[in-house]
Amino acid sequence: MEKWHLDYLQRILNARVYDVAIESPLELAEKLSARLGNRIWLKREDKQPVHSFKLRGAYNKMVHLSQAELDRGVVCASAGNHAQGVALSARQLGTQAVVVMPVTTPRLKLDAVRTLGAQVVLKGDSYSDAYSHALELEKRHQYVFVHPFDDPDVIAGQGTVGMEILRQHQHPLDAVFVAIGGGGLIAGVAAYIKAVRPEIKIIGVQTADSDAMIQSIKADEPVLLKDVGLFSDGTAVKKVGTETFRLTRELVDDFVTVDTDAICAAIKDAFEETRSILEPAGALGIAGMKQYIAQHGLEDKNLVAITCGANMNFDRLRFVAEQAEAGEGREALFAVTIPEERGSFKRLCQTIGQRNVTEFSYRISDEREAHVLVGLAISNRGEVPEINQSLSEQGFTALNLVDDDLSKEHLRYMVGGRSQLGENERLYRFEFPECPGALMRFLSRMHPNWNISLFHYRNSGADYGRILVGIEVPEEEVPAFRDFIDSLSYRYVDETRNPAYRLFLR
């Protein structure tokens, strides 16, 4: 074993976390095991006092500070879970904690941090903004900065999760699935498990739109993402740590990315198994494990998924419930074109047969053809080609929208909104931060020649809003418009050529 690896093993073995943390249970997930054909174990870090593993690293860092450093107080930046860990640790150690959080932070997390006695400072729309301000406060007031992931003591504290897994499961174990944000948890878990039982695979899980670690491994150096998806806010990190990157590159065996639908399905899986509601980041391990099993055809293996957090906003549950069906492959969404004539609608219903209809949207818009949005309950995605074939045999043209985010997030709520007035209309999906002034920032920078021709927003209870905007832009001004939307730093997708948009809204 190399010296640096031995050093981390010693740090983890000597980590002080149990003044504030519990040894979380490792539970057999019987329903998931039966469904997936493998023995699935859940490492329940969601049961920690602050409902996240983060207090392990925060406390281990802070308990190693000198009394003089504790007297100066500590500062950190966090979107929620690390903040609660620092606040609880500060209360335990009798020091002042200043926590900088984005203004988009949900009240649930703000109240939790304040209840633990920390001073909360709201700054910026993102973690990056909060992080920069925390560094300013560190210099101005001589606070000690407690990094959320890129610190050896923090990494060692998180590594006690791996230590507990091996102590609790002394039988053969094939793989452990770990969510990755900045990399502190996977670095610590991998450091311990690979030192003690190197035959066990460590699989990292990231969201497809926040995969900074995976991109860094490919580039062989930490890379800075231009933007990140915000649904899994606990792992929405634009740049991983230098030390966490080094450990992950050396010790982690493989990676898998998952989308929002898969995460929502995993939250539902966890609820049905444990009656606990995980936050998106907390369910990443389960989502990644399910996808990895399917991709590699795993059978009869012993697998662990770390459920690393449960600080879920209640308002977000509606969105999760809606997306979970798609994530489980239990809903098929189609745009079906039928003749605008008597009997066509009845014939479509006969073709659908006894399948349960989850959605049916239609509005007359053309003398010859009708476009109908149809949602159907299915057992698995293998049924989708069969349905397509049945519709085709009856002379109906069907467009499969199962993987079309525009349709799932917006169109299904807007069918019937066709207009002939929108000239040179361009369609974009945006993610706006849920904070005062976000929309005004967008509108105030728009050129007066650009007219909003369509707007759809639906609150999903998240830290950001999913917004669909149609804008009339003269062809000669398209380059200027692209420069404008790039300058906003909001995530966006150009949907102008999306066939579903042209069927239902154009």
TrEMBL record:
The secretion signal range is none
Domain ACT-like stretches = 332-403, 426-497
Task: Offer an example of a GO molecular function term for this protein.
Answer: L-serine ammonia-lyase activity
- Lineage, top-rank taxon, reads Bacteria
The cross-references to NCBIfam families, in alphabetical order and at most eight, read: ilvA_2Cterm, PRK09224.1, PRK12483.1
Per the entry, what this protein does is:
Catalyzes the anaerobic formation of alpha-ketobutyrate and ammonia from threonine in a two-step reaction. The first step involved a dehydration of threonine and a production of enamine intermediates (aminocrotonate), which tautomerizes to its imine form (iminobutyrate). Both intermediates are unstable and short-lived. The second step is the nonenzymatic hydrolysis of the enamine/imine intermediates to form 2-ketobutyrate and free ammonia. In the low water environment of the cell, the second step is accelerated by RidA.
Q: Which family does it belong to?
A: Belongs to the serine/threonine dehydratase family.
Task: Please report the name of this protein according to its UniProt entry.
Answer: L-threonine dehydratase
Organism, as annotated: Polystyrenella longa
Task: Please name the gene that encodes this protein.
Answer: ilvA
